[in-house]
TrEMBL record:
InterPro entries, per database record: Cyt_P450 (IPR001128), Cyt_P450_CS (IPR017972), Cyt_P450_E_grp-IV (IPR002403), Cyt_P450_sf (IPR036396)
Cofactors named for this entry: heme
Pfam families for the chain: p450
Taxonomic lineage of the native organism: Eukaryota, Fungi, Dikarya, Basidiomycota, Wallemiomycotina
Entry-linked CDD domains: CYP61_CYP710 (cd11082)
Organism field: Wallemia hederae
Major enzyme class: oxidoreductase
Protein name as annotated: sterol 22-desaturase
Keyword tags: Heme, Iron, Metal-binding, Monooxygenase, Oxidoreductase
UniProt-annotated binding residues for heme: 455
Length: 512
C-alpha cells in the first residue's frame, strides 16, 4: 500500500522528471534555432567580409541604436561588399561606387526600403511606396513642379523668409547652436514654397511643431503597435493634421487656377498644369500623364507630405554644413562675397533671380563641394525583392537589406584629390571652358542618389542653398565658435556636427 505522503512525493518526483524533460526539449529547440541562425547567416554571407558569426538574435543591434560615421566607415573598409546581421535582418553594404550605382538602378531586383514604421506614419497609400512603371508614371506627373518657371516663382517666397530669419539671428546677443533654427528656416520655406498662402500662419506653425513628432517616430526600431502614447501614434495624429491642411490648400488652389490666375506656389503649378492638360492648353512631357489622371486633393496632400519628409533633414544638414565650412574657410567666403557683390551689381537689396543664380558659378561650386565633403545622406537602404546576382561570384539573397553607400564615392581619393579638404575650385571649368576632372566624374557624385528613385527635388535643393548662402554672405558676418565636437559627426538619419554648429551672427556693414 502507498500512503498519501508517499503518493505525494512520488507524484512530485514524476512531475519534476516531466519538467526536466520539457526544459531539455526547450533547450534543444533553442540551441538548434541558434545553430540554424548561424548556419543561415554563414550561407547568406558566402565569401563576403564581415563578422564570421552573428550575435544571437540581436546581431549588431547595438551599433544601429547609436549609428556613427566611424561605424559606417569601418563597415565600408571591410570590402567593396560586406555583410552583417541586425535582428535577423541580413544586410549587405556596398562601398564601391560601381556596386552602389548598380543597386540604385536595379529596379527589377531591389527597391528603396524605409524603416518599418514609415508605412504607418506616412500612410500606406503614399506614392513614396510605389515602384516600377506605376512609380515612373507618377513621377512624370510631378516634373511640372520643378521647371525653370516654377523655380523662379519660388524665389521671392524663399528670400523673404531668409531675411526674416537673418533678422532674428543677428539680434541674438550670445552664440548658440543653430541646427534647430536652421531646421525652422527650412520648414517655413518648404511650407510656404509648397502651399503658398493657402494655409494660415497659425496652422503652419502647428504643422512645423508637429512635424517633429513624425521625424522622431521614423526610428529603425519602434514599438510594433500604434497604441496611444507611442511615438508612432503621435506621428499618425500629426500626419492627419498636416494632410487635412494640405488637402485644403489643394482644393483652394484648384479653384483659383480654374479662374486662370497665376501660380504662386508648388501646388499651384501642379493644379494649373492639370487644368491646362485637361483643356489641351499644354503639350509637354507631363501633359500625357496629367490628362490621363486627375490627382485628388488627398494625393496632392500626400506628395507634399512626402516632400517634407524627403527634404527637411537633408536640407537642414546641407545648410548647417555650408555655414560651418564657409566660416572655417574665410578666404573662400571672401570669394563668395566678391561674386555676390558683382552679380548683384553692388545692390544687396536686389531680389535674386534665376538668371543671377546661373551667374553664381563660384557660390554654386561651394554648395556642390559642401554636399560632397559632408553629404547629408550617407547611404540609402534598399531591399531585394528577388535574388540579385550583383557580381559573378556573389548573389544577394531575396529579402536582404542591400545598402548602396554614398559617402565613400564622394571621398574617393582617386577621383577627388585630398578628399577631406573643402576645395570649391575642383568644380570650376578651366580657362578654355572645359569641365574639371571632378565634374567629368559625374558617376561618383551620388549626393542625390541615382536611377529611378533619384532625388526629385535636387535642382530646388541646390537653388535654395545657393540663394540662401548668397544672401547670407552679403547681409551677415558670422563666427563659428569651434568646440571639441565641431568636427565630430552625429548621424540622425542625416549627418550634423555633434555640437549642432555653435555660431554668432551679426549684421554686415555695407560698403558705400
Ligand atoms: C540637400 C538636400 C537633399 C538631399 C541631399 C537629398 C537626397 C536624396 C537621396 C539620396 C534620395 C534617394 C535617392 C535614391 O534612392 O536614388 C532622395 C530621394 C528623394 N528626394 Fe531628396 N534630397 C534633398 C532634398 C530634397 C528636396 C528639397 C525634395 C523635395 C522638394 C526632395 C524630394 C525627394 C523625393 C520625393 C525623393 C524620392 C524619389 C523617388 O522615390 O522617386 N529631396 N533625396
Amino acid at each position: 500500500m502507498v500512503n498519501a505522503t508517499e503518493s505525494y512525493y512520488m507524484g512530485s518526483r514524476e512531475a519534476s522528471g516531466g519538467n526536466h524533460a520539457v526544459l531539455n526539449t526547450v533547450l534543444v529547440v533553442v540551441a538548434s534555432l541558434l545553430v540554424l541562425e548561424q548556419a543561415v547567416y554563414k550561407w547568406k554571407k558566402g565569401h563576403l567580409p564581415g563578422p564570421s558569426w552573428s550575435i544571437p538574435i540581436i546581431g549588431r543591434f547595438a551599433d544601429s541604436l547609436n549609428p556613427s560615421l566611424e561605424n559606417y566607415m569601418s563597415g565600408w573598409k571591410l570590402g567593396d561588399l560586406s555583410a552583417v546581421s541586425v535582428f535577423n535582418i541580413f544586410i549587405v553594404q556596398a562601398a564601391k561606387n560601381e556596386y552602389s550605382r548598380k543597386i540604385f538602378s536595379s529596379g527589377s531586383y531591389a527597391e528603396p526600403c524605409l524603416v518599418a514604421s514609415a508605412k504607418k506614419v506616412l500612410d500606406p497609400n503614399n506614392w513614396v511606396f510605389l515602384n516600377g512603371k506605376v512609380h515612373s508614371d507618377y513621377r512624370k506627373g510631378l516634373n511640372v513642379l520643378f521647371t525653370r518657371k516654377a523655380l523662379s516663382s519660388y524665389l521671392p517666397i524663399q528670400e523673404s523668409i531668409y531675411r526674416k530669419y537673418f533678422d532674428q539671428w543677428t539680434k541674438e546677443s550670445t552664440p548658440k547652436s543653430y541646427m534647430m533654427a536652421m531646421r525652422d528656416l527650412n520648414m517655413e520655406t518648404s511650407l510656404k514654397v509648397f502651399c503658398g498662402d493657402y494655409i494660415p500662419q497659425h496652422a503652419q506653425d502647428d504643422i512645423s511643431d508637429k512635424y517633429w513628432l513624425i521625424t522622431v517616430a521614423l526610428e529603425l526600431v519602434n514599438f510594433p503597435f500604434a497604441w496611444p502614447g507611442t511615438k508612432v501614434y503621435n506621428a499618425i495624429k500629426a500626419r492627419k493634421v498636416a494632410i487635412k491642411w494640405f488637402e485644403y490648400a489643394s482644393a483652394q488652389s484648384k479653384a483659383r487656377m480654374a479662374l486662370g490666375e497665376e501660380p504662386e506656389c508648388l501646388i499651384d503649378h501642379w493644379t494649373k498644369a492639370m487644368h491646362e492638360a485637361k483643356h489641351n492648353d499644354r503639350d509637354d512631357g507631363s501633359s500625357k500623364v496629367l490628362r490621363a489622371r486627375e490627382f485628388s486633393d488627398n494625393e496632392i496632400a500626400m506628395v507634399v507630405l512626402s516632400f517634407l519628409f524627403a527634404s527637411q533633414d537633408a536640407m537642414t544638414s546641407g545648410v548647417v554644413y555650408i555655414f560651418q565650412l564657409l566660416a572655417d574657410n574665410p578666404a573662400i567666403l571672401a570669394k563668395v562675397r566678391e561674386e555676390q557683390y558683382r552679380v548683384r551689381g553692388g545692390d544687396v537689396e536686389s531680389a535674386t533671380t534665376l538668371d543671377m543664380l546661373d551667374q553664381m558659378t563660384y557660390t554654386r561650386a561651394c554648395i556642390k563641394e559642401s554636399l560632397r565633403v559632408k553629404p547629408p545622406v550617407i547611404m540609402v537602404p534598399y531591399m531585394t525583392k528577388k535574388a540579385f546576382p550583383i557580381t559573378k561570384e556573389y548573389t544577394v539573397p531575396k529579402g536582404t537589406m542591400l545598402i548602396p553607400s554614398i559617402y565613400p564615392s564622394l571621398h574617393d581619393p582617386a577621383v577627388y584629390a585630398d578628399p577631406e579638404a573643402f576645395v570649391p575650385e575642383r568644380w570650376l571649368a578651366n580657362a578654355d571652358g572645359e569641365p574639371s576632372d571632378a565634374e567629368k566624374a559625374a558617376s561618383n557624385y551620388l549626393v542625390f542618389g541615382h536611377g529611378p528613385h533619384h532625388c526629385l527635388g535636387k535642382e530646388y535643393a541646390v537653388l535654395h542653398m545657393t540663394a540662401l548662402i548668397g544672401a547670407a554672405s552679403v547681409l551677415m558676418d558670422w563666427d563659428h565658435i569651434v568646440t571639441p565636437d565641431s568636427n565630430n559627426v552625429q548621424v540622425i538619419a542625416t549627418i550634423f556636427p555633434k555640437d549642432g554648429f555653435v555660431a554668432k551672427f551679426s549684421k554686415r556693414e555695407q560698403v558705400a
